[in-house]
């Protein structure tokens, strides 16, 4: 991890936002990129600019933080939930959040969560990663080289891995396989698709062209995808 983690804070309580803002600003490897009062503001911000880490309150007017995460399956940022209520811990576990902070949040407890996030991103982006993984397909473990992957296509608990030479179907979730790929080389374009940016040959209508293949881009993720491909100002 060579640059600070881009953070967004979402909480309907101004005092809580201010406290988290102070903690983020006191942490050298975190960079605050926005304060949101509800998930509507958060959604708008994510359409304009990607983030690495969300500090997300649970109980807010309108859509709760948990319901927001359940609906926004294509979000790439990792999440630290913040709440005054312990009963949401199981939901946080099911949603695979990085940490779960109970209010009032102490500086020490915040720092533990921040360090956990830093360690996660450092491990994920480690340059010494082998450049491949093994998946179970066709009754055996198949080696898949990252550089050969065109895109992943998810359907419930199965993922089809489309490569330059073959297609493999494995029992997994798209989220789980995406987490095993280098973040700098792959981008999620839709709740059901993850694409290797190096293989994108054209931007075509509401999708991406990868040679003979076309992959959709959702409205929610369009701005982030175009920014990753070098077109931040594209319509």
Question: What can you see in these coordinates?
Answer:
With about 240 residues, the protein is α/β, with parallel strands linked by helices. It has seven helices and 15 strands. The strands form four sheets. It has a five-stranded parallel beta sheet. A five-stranded antiparallel beta sheet has the order 10-9-8-12-11. A hairpin with a 2-residue loop joins strand 13 and strand 14. The longest helix is centred in the middle third of the chain and has 18 residues.
What is the helix/strand order?
EHEHEHEHEHEEEEEHEEEEEH
| Beta-strand segment tally | 15
Shape: globular
Q: Stretches where pLDDT falls below 50 for ≥5 residues? A: none
Gap between N and C termini:
31 Å
Q: Mind summarizing the main beta sheet?
A: 5 strands, parallel
Q: Strands, helices and their partners?
A:
Layout: E1 5-10, H1 14-25, E2 30-36, H2 39-48, E3 53-57, H3 65-71, E4 78-83, H4 89-94, E5 99-102, H5 107-124, E6 132-137, E7 140-145, E8 149-155, E9 158-163, E10 167-171, H6 174-179, E11 186-190, E12 193-196, E13 202-204, E14 207-210, E15 213-216, H7 222-228
Parallel strand pairs: 1-2, 1-3, 3-4, 4-5
Antiparallel strand pairs: 6-7, 8-9, 8-12, 9-10, 11-12, 13-14, 14-15
């Amino acid at each position: 991890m060579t640059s600070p983690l881009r953070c967004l804070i979402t909480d309907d309580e101004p005092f809580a936002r201010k406290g988290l803002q102070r903690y983020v600003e006191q942490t050298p490897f975190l960079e605050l990129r926005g304060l949101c009062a509800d998930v509507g503001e958060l959604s708008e911000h994510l359409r304009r600019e990607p983030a690495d880490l969300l500090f997300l309150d649970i109980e807010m007017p309108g859509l709760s933080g948990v319901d927001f995460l359940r609906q926004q399956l294509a979000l790439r940022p990792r999440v630290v939930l913040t709440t005054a209520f312990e009963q949401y811990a199981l939901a946080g576990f099911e949603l695979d959040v990085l940490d779960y902070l109970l209010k009032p949040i102490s500086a020490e407890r915040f720092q533990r969560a921040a360090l956990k996030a830093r360690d996660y991103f450092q491990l994920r982006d480690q340059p010494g990663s082998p450049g491949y993984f093994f998946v179970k397909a066709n009754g055996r473990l198949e080696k898949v080289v990252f550089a050969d992957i065109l895109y992943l296509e998810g359907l419930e608990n199965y993922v089809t891995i489309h490569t330059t030479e073959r297609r493999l179907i494995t029992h997994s979730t798209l989220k789980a396989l995406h987490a095993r790929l280098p973040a700098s080389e792959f981008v999620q374009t839709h709740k059901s698709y993850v694409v290797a940016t190096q293989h994108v040959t054209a931007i075509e209508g509401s999708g991406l062209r990868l040679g003979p293949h076309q992959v959709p881009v959702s409205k929610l993720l369009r701005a982030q995808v175009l920014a990753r491909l070098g077109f931040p100002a594209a319509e």
